[in-house]
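=== Per-residue structure ===
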Amino acid sequence: MKESIDSILAIDRKTRELVENTDKEIEQIKKDLREKLTDLENESIEKSKLLGKEKSDEILSDFENKADDLRKENQKNLEEIEAYYEKTSEDLIKVVFDKLIGRDSNV
């Protein structure tokens, strides 16, 4: 009878050890999984930041190119206006002067 009780106690002790070891392994697996998930989340955040920066840089570059094109076009228009004014300024001044003094201009 004592042997049976000792055997049952030994089985109980082994079962308790097995449960404790299993619980420890489960906790370690959970810990490892949390760490891996955190690493994946951080990696995803970094990739998102890089993608956002790339898109932002691309948009800014496109905007700067359009602004440069607009500046060049405005500069060209200004040069054309200045050239036209240089070419016709004497005639324009004569027409305005003639109108001011009430004379008909034949330019």
